[in-house]
Design brief:
- By secondary structure, this protein is mainly alpha-helical.
- The protein has one helix and no strands.
- The protein has one helix spanning about 25-50.
- The mean pLDDT is about 75.
Amino acid sequence: MDNDNEFNYSPNNNFKQVEQKQKSGGFGKTILIPFVSGIIGASLIVRYMFWST
């Protein structure tokens, strides 16, 4: 069986490695902003439910 799609690994293959960015989100971006936006959204929904009638 002759397969032309074989992958031949050699140390001379120079593949580019994707540089991974360090995640420096911090407390404000990862926890505080989603929490505050959730509180604001929930309060708007509750306000609409009770004061629209």
